[in-house]
TrEMBL record:
Organism expressing this protein natively: Helcobacillus massiliensis
Record domain Gfo/Idh/MocA-like oxidoreductase N-terminal: where: 6-119
SUPFAM superfamilies (UniProt xref): Glyceraldehyde-3-phosphate dehydrogenase-like, C-terminal domain, NAD(P)-binding Rossmann-fold domains
Name under which the protein is recorded: Putative dehydrogenase
Name of one Pfam family that matches: GFO_IDH_MocA_C
Top-level taxon: Bacteria
GO MF term list: nucleotide binding
Recorded family membership: Belongs to the Gfo/Idh/MocA family.
Positions of the Gfo/Idh/MocA-like oxidoreductase C-terminal domain: 131-330
């Protein structure tokens, strides 16, 4: 009989508690140790001894770890796990800056370890279905990807601004949906909450394959919005990751009589609108299944640390652009 994988979790905050719940219910995995120097404020790990740090987690004899500590601590925790030979899933973003992200990526790749980044939006049913339909050529040539990620102010986030906390999702999912990295970005940001970091940003970009992008992200809206729109030569796909809905707006063919000024316009016209029925499985559960399978050598449906490194580079370019009011090109 195959033994279950032994998993460890460090960080029992708002995200860590959800990781704990999923690890406890993940087939083929035993959550054997949890750690957080601040204890277990949400009661996420009843019956577990709460270890003080990553060294104690390693000593528990784990096969892989999930890191859900604040971003500023990602580097030190991940490097300790890499040196111990532990496969690791690090919550997004991979690291606080490019240098730390490069060091983490190199540490895991050079040791042949499975290193992943927790970009949960990739596992949302709406975006999973969108990616499959794009692969099948439903939209033909892709022209533009736009995202909107808006919501209320999260008092719990204190170590980073809205770019590293939220916009990092949009930069990652856009590159993944398009299968192309960012070539350049231009951004403006502002801070209205009185804190050190920005809480509103608008980004325009261009991917290496020529697709143009636009991203509106803030913590200052009295409603929650998580929308991704991909526009191509045959229509548009619109994904809502709050409701896990996916819509297809097809380009129509208008052959009816039109007034002359409209008839001379050679754009598209409104066609059919379809809402797809999707299996609405919890994205975090799917993410954990994918990482478990990768550790077991059964699949590669996970966000690699090198993917995470590319996203950190895009995030840093956005911050540089907003600070200097300039277009920033990303190197290879």
């Amino acid at each position: 009989m195959t033994k279950n994988l032994r998993a460890g979790l460090i960080g029992l905050g708002m995200m860590g508690r959800h990781h704990a719940r999923n690890l406890m219910n993940l087939e083929g995995v035993d959550l054997v140790a949890v750690a957080d120097p601040g204890g277990d404020p949400h009661g996420a790990a009843p019956g577990y001894d709460i270890l003080p740090g990553v060294e104690e987690l390693v000593k528990a004899g784990i096969d892989y770890a999930v890191v859900a500590v604040p971003t500023a601590f990602h580097h030190d925790v991940a490097m300790t796990l890499a040196e111990a030979g532990v496969h690791t899933l690090v919550e997004k973003p991979l690291a606080f800056d490019i240098q730390e992200a490069e060091a983490i990526t190199e540490a895991f790749e050079s040791r042949g370890l499975i290193g992943a980044v927790g970009y949960i939006e990739r596992y949302n049913p709406a975006l999973q279905a969108m990616r499959k339909r794009l692969e099948d050529g439903q939209l033909g040539e892709l022209y533009q990807i736009t995202t909107r990620r808006q919501g209320i102010f999260p008092a719990r986030i204190a170590d980073v601004g809205v770019v590293k906390d939220l916009a990092t999702h949009d930069l990652d999912l856009t590159a993944w949906v398009a299968q192309s990295h960012f070539q350049s970005v231009a951004a403006v940001s502002t801070g209205k909450s009185g804190r050190e970091y920005e809480d509103m940003v608008s980004v325009t970009g261009r991917l290496e394959n020529g697709i143009i992008t636009n991203h509106l992200v803030n913590w200052l809206s009295p409603f929650k919005e998580r929308t991704t729109v991909v526009t191509g030569e045959k229509g548009a796909l619109v994904g809502d990751t709050v409701t896990a809905d996916l819509w297809f707006y097809e380009n129509g063919e208008s052959t009816t009589n039109m007034w002359d000024s409209f008839a001379s316009f050679r754009g598209v016209s409104e066609g059919d609108k379809i809402r797809y029925a999707l299996n609405r499985k919890e994205p975090l559960a799917t993410e954990h299944e994918a990482f478990r399978d990768a550790v077991l050598g059964r699949g590669d449906n996970y966000v690699t640390m090198r993917d995470g490194l590319h996203t950190v580079r895009a995030v840093e370019a956005v911050l540089e652009s907003a600070a200097n009011n300039t277009v920033v090109s990303l190197g290879a």
